[in-house]
């Protein structure tokens, strides 16, 4: 049963939720990487395995957002992201499995092999992909699609914000923190001193922070920035925190009245490099190390940058005597068979450039 509902039974009746994930995701020790980094403990939370077809952190949020879409009988969802967005891909896959039409409104990003693979997987799940070079055009097109589909089917599409991040989506990670607490109580791992997690739209980290605080864990979150400030700033993050807590308390007043404290959320800003989805030397080196010593498959846009921060902090000695948990947010399921026979030429022509143009210099072809 969902950890959140076990802790707050009243929420189960009032919060819409559609189970998608295989939970709890495992927590595993990383002894070789721990020894190399001279830590007192190093573990990985395997959210890369949230689902057998397409996992990663986004599926936890979709349990709640798609849960709401189904509850209110929407037949279409609209979501947003950059061209290779893991969130848009996860939404395409899981919406399609629930017989919902998925519209993905996309913005350009640096090219990479995973961008091509994600686009092909979305397309294989019949997602309708549209790309825009200007946010304004994207907003207009979203409005147009909403009205058009509203008239045609009598039901406007359900809107899932970028990254699946909203007070509803963040519940997936409040739930994840309670799940972690259960694993700690069961002796799967000792209480970690630090959790390293990439910071994108912040739903993952804010949900985790709320969950950790609600169960009284003193674990410090280390959100590692992988998007520029205009996508995730402290003002917006504080608002998401307050709205999520307020939402939970409106459904179950026994949920603790947590207050935002900026000191709980110290963003590590030093590993973004040239910007979102621009791979960095430090990120690629951390990916190699995590693969060689921990068997982890990480990426250049998110998880590699978070691992780079973990490595740099241990090298600088600030993690001496600490127990660290690395939250693996990246899908690790191999979906190659699902895209083998998908022809890139059948994608909208505005996306062809990702298949024709070279990938960025540091790309490893995965
Ligand atoms: C989206 C994403 C993140 C960031 O999660 P947010 O909730 O948007 O902060 C981290 N890692 C991976 C692999 C992602 O796809």
How many strands in all? Answer: 9
Low-confidence stretches: none
What small-molecule ligands were found?
pyridoxal-5'-phosphate
User: What about the largest sheet?
Assistant: 5 strands, mixed
Strand content: 5-15%
Global Rg: 20 Å
List keywords for this structure.
4-stranded parallel β-sheet; 366 residues; alpha/beta
Task: Report what the structure shows.
This protein has 366 residues and is of the alpha/beta class. 43% of the residues lie in helices and 13% in strands. It contains 14 helices and nine strands. It has helices at 3-7, 9-14, 31-36, 58-71, 86-97, 113-124, 135-153, 167-185, 203-214, 234-251, 281-294, 303-315, 336-339, 353-356; strands at 27-29, 41-45, 76-82, 101-107, 128-131, 158-160, 194-199, 220-225, 323-327. The strands form two sheets. A five-stranded mixed beta sheet has the order 1-2-9-7-8. It has a four-stranded parallel beta sheet with strand order 5-4-3-6, sandwiched between helices. β3 (76-82), α5 (86-97) and β4 form a beta-alpha-beta unit. α8 (167-185) crosses α9. The relative contact order is 0.17. The mean pLDDT is 97. The structure holds pyridoxal-5'-phosphate. Pyridoxal-5'-phosphate is lined by residues 56-57, 86-87, 163, 165, 198-205, 302-303, 329-330.
